[in-house]
Amino acid sequence: MIISHNLYVKIKKILKPFRNYIFKPPHTNQAYDKTIDPNPPPPPAFAEESLERHISRISIELSNLCNYAHRHKKCPVSWYTEKKILSSEIFFKVVNELAGYGFCGELAFHRYNEPMLDKRLYDFIGYVNKKLPRAKIFILTNGSFLNQETLQKLEQHKIWLITVSSYDFKEHERLSKLQTAIPYRVYFSHLDDREDIYSRRPINSGDPCYATLRDITVNCCGDLSICCLDWRNDYTFGSLKDHSLKELLNSPAFLAVHRDLFQGRRNLEICRRCDWQR
């Protein structure tokens, strides 16, 4: 079948976001296959008292910096004008508090940042290993700093999973050839259009969302955020500089949002425009 050049260009443009998945499947090593359950975890049980003891995952954003920001214009990091670094004191404070609860969920070092850009990362990982021996340390990275040497350095710590977002074939090929005893996954990434999350037409989904327990976020300013989609930090529940994690999670404002989202009431403006069910 012969098609016109203009039609070919249109088809190519439509398929561009999916070409990585069509022509080459994501690389997953054997350790990842054995360790990670491909099925999503069940919704957490509803809780209103002592929420801090029911956290499934906490993401602590170390900064708003990424070495690929200039390449990825759809990533919020490329829109920030002021550089911000999370205070080490806040990081240690949160980890110390989680230790008091015997935290055994996932702990990540990212939101929109590149965690391996932060020179404190290895010290932070070591501290988590010491204070939270049952925690599952999760590293999400663009892979630019990964090589056999850095992976061997990471192997000196207890890491639950390293997931790599690659953005071109050459880099994907390089990253897929790396070997490590750590559960390790490389996949092609496609950035979505979340820039307009605040202005897009409301969806008013009635689906529940479990982000308030399954994926809580401490942003690089040290504030407890509603979720990672709130890239402007419009919806926060207070500073961990001034309050404990327990105080913020059990505050009336947070509990109200937690209760609403668990029951499918997406009352916040950003939630009304979101169809994610985390």
Oligomerization state of this entry? single chain
Sheet with most strands: strand arrangement: 1-6-5-4-3-2-7-8-9
* SSE series: HHEHEHEHEHEHEHEEEHHH
Shape: globular
How much beta, percentage-wise? 5-15%
The gyration radius over C-alpha positions equals 20 Å
Structural class by helix and strand composition: alpha/beta
Report the average pLDDT across residues.
85
| Record field, number of beta strands | 9
The percentage helix is 25-40%
Largest sheet: 9 strands, mixed
Alpha-carbon distance between the termini?
44 Å
The number of helical segments is: 11
Low-confidence stretches: 16-38
Q: What key phrases describe this protein's structure?
A:
nine-stranded mixed β-sheet, 278 residues, alpha/beta, single chain
Walk me through what this model shows:
With 278 residues, the protein is α/β, with parallel strands linked by helices. A 9-stranded mixed sheet has the order 1-6-5-4-3-2-7-8-9. α4 runs parallel beside α5. The longest helix is centred in the middle third of the chain and has 13 residues. It is globular and about 45 Å long. The chain starts with a helix and ends in a 6-residue tail after the last helix. About 8% of the residues have low confidence.
